[in-house]
Amino acid sequence: MDAALRDPAEALAPPSKLRRRMPLRFRRAVPGGRFFDVMGDRSFGGRFRAVRRLVCAALWTLIAIPIQAVLLLLPGRGKITFARLYWRGICFLIGMRLRVVGDRSTAPRTLYLANHSSWLDILVLGATLEAAFVSKAEVGKWPLIGTVARLGRTVFVSRDRRRTGNEANEMRDRLGTGDSLILFPEGTSSDGTRVLPFRSSFLAVADAAEVIHPVSVAYDRLGGLPACRRDRPVFAWYGDMSIAPHAWRLCRHAGLRVTILLHDPLDSSAVPNRKVLTAAAEATVAEGAAMLRQNREPKPLHLQAALPA
Question: In this structure, how many other beta carbons lie within 10 angstroms of the beta carbon of residue 94?
């Protein structure tokens, strides 16, 4: 009768002579404290890496600003060549490795159409292409970044419909002088998992260009390994993100790589109108970006194939 009234847990407990007086304690599989724990979060190394990268990038910018300011006053292509050299230096200093697939356009008055997911697109495309950017007017008011953008001969556009005509004329004038432009037809940055619809109003100056060149950009390596959907926010800058915390978090990582897929260019005279061009360019850029995100072997696509028969 007493055995039936006992607690089940007490009945299942081992005899007192088999019980351990001290609980089991396990040691780390990898010896060392927090700082030398190779299996844990390397926060200390990441912080030092970020500080080193950001400081070096800031110093390189301060050195390059007076050089570019002088080159803007001189004739020739020095200002274009040095701008590309500056962006390549920035990519190197922040640890961003570039992989370019496809041939760069050698024709003057080339209009590059690229997808947009981050402020990093300015760095990697500026380091790859000898062209000026078309950016929103707010960027010109940012401290230091606005100065760099103006020295890079950026064309600023506003969202005011009353100024659309003047800004389009400025873009036509830049193309008429033989300059090439890099345009983001999405109008804003995405989360890096897809390409947003292109806006046909941004391609109103396509007839002033000699060549239309679609470009797909994808950040496909993080820590030396293929980047997955979970890693996209490390690179993508969208919504209400602040650029300083985003840059700090990015620079703490190692093994960064971006792939720039340059598709086959198309003569602007072969495009019937900007509506058709918008749909064809969006399809080409989106297919190329999906190819890179899926870690497939990239190959340039034909914009001509996306045009309706």
Answer: 20
| Percent share of the chain, pLDDT over 70 | 82
The pairs formed by 45-48 with CB atoms below 8 angstroms and a separation of 24 or more are 46/252, 46/253, 47/252
**What is the pTM (predicted TM-score) of this model?**
0.82
- Give a three-class secondary structure readout of the chain: CCCCCCCHHHHHCCCHHHCCCCCCCCCCCCCCCCCCCCCCCCHHHHHHHHHHHHHHHHHHHHHHHHHHHHHHHCCCCHHHHHHHHHHHHHHHHCCEEEEEECCCCCCCCEEEEECCCCCHHHHHHHHHCCCEEEEEHHHHHCCCHHHHHHHCCCEEECCCHHHHHHHHHHHHHHHHCCCCEEECCCCCCCCCCCCCCCCHHHHCCHHHCCEEEEEEEEEEEECCEECCHHHHHHHCCCCCCCHHHHHHHHHCCCCEEEEEEECECEEHHHCCCHHHHHHHHHHHHHHHHHHHHCCCCCCCCEHHHHCCC
Confidence (pLDDT) at 230: 87
Which is higher by pLDDT, 292 or 268?
Answer: 292
Backbone angles phi, psi at 30, to 5 degrees: -110, 115
**Residue 52 neighbours by CB distance under 10 Å:** 14
| Pair of tokens at residue 262 | 């340059």
Burial class (CB in 10 A: 0-12, 13-18, 19+), 90: buried
pLDDT of 86 reads 96
